[in-house]
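[step 3/7] inverse_fold.run input=structure_tokens len=272
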């Protein structure tokens, strides 16, 4: 990190894997003041903040607890005064009761946060999801950061191994090779099982966005993508600026494909 990117006064949208980059950047350029939001944090700015007891309140209105738990995230996004969708119109009285009861709270005006700001995307493969989230704000312009990786044309091949011990052996050997070449190495691991002590000194991240400045090795496992039924139809979901279940799977597949072709990715090990 040799130069300033002139972040002063800007708002950046970046995944959590970029936290180490921004920490080092702030230390190098302490005079630059800027704000960073992940996509998830950005979406939350456009939703109601939920207080404890909201699910139980919805249950009292005649919904089962699983139904209330599924419905609440959608109700949080109903920040408009009115909707064209009939299914959303029916839920407006419930939304209003949640507001009146203090279970939903307005977090502020997003327009006030972003008004007059230069906004920069960093670390994500697409700006579509971000632009959809802020599409109702006036005079919004998104920019890409100075560095955008040139993805490979083909995915990096996966080495399949039969067990965890063999996977760790392959990864450790690759990490040693990269470290010997003077590279900083990070491990992508989305699993729940604890990693062995031999990898305890390696930064670990989740998701398909490699941290800046690191060469990446990835321990992968078979993922079961389940298409969940949507509570609302496509028209209602579009009014709420929310992706359908099918669209979420498409987004995940797109990001995973980009990860497989990322120039930072050096090894992919799949444990059968």
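[step 3/7] decode complete -> sequence:
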């Amino acid at each position: 990190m040799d130069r300033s990117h002139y972040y002063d006064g800007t708002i950046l949208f970046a995944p959590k894997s970029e936290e180490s980059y921004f920490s080092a950047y702030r230390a190098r350029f302490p005079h630059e003041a800027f704000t960073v939001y992940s996509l998830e944090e950005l979406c939350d700015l456009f939703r109601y903040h939920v207080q404890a007891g909201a699910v139980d309140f919805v249950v009292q209105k005649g919904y089962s607890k699983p139904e209330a738990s599924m419905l609440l995230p959608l109700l949080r996004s109903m920040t408009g005064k009115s909707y064209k969708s009939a299914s959303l119109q029916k839920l407006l009285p419930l939304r209003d009761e949640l507001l009146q009861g203090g279970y939903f709270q307005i977090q502020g005006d997003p327009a006030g946060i972003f008004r007059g700001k230069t906004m920069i995307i960093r670390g994500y493969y697409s700006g579509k999801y971000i632009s959809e989230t802020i599409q109702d704000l006036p005079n919004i312009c998104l920019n890409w950061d100075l560095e955008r990786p040139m993805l490979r044309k083909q995915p990096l091949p996966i080495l399949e191994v039969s067990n965890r011990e063999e996977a760790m052996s392959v990864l450790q050997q690759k990490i040693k090779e990269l470290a010997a070449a003077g590279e900083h190495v990070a491990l992508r691991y989305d699993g729940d099982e604890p990693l062995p002590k031999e990898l305890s000194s390696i930064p670990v991240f989740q998701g398909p966005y490699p941290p800046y400045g690191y060469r990446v090795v990835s321990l992968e496992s078979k993922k079961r993508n389940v298409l969940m039924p949507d509570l609302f139809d496509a028209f209602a979901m579009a009014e709420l600026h929310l992706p359908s279940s099918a669209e979420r799977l498409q987004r995940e597949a797109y990001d995973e494909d980009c990860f497989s072709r990322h120039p930072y990715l050096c090894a992919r090990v799949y444990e059968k």
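[step 4/7] annotate
Residues 37 and 66 are 30 Å apart (CA to CA).
The mean pLDDT is 91.
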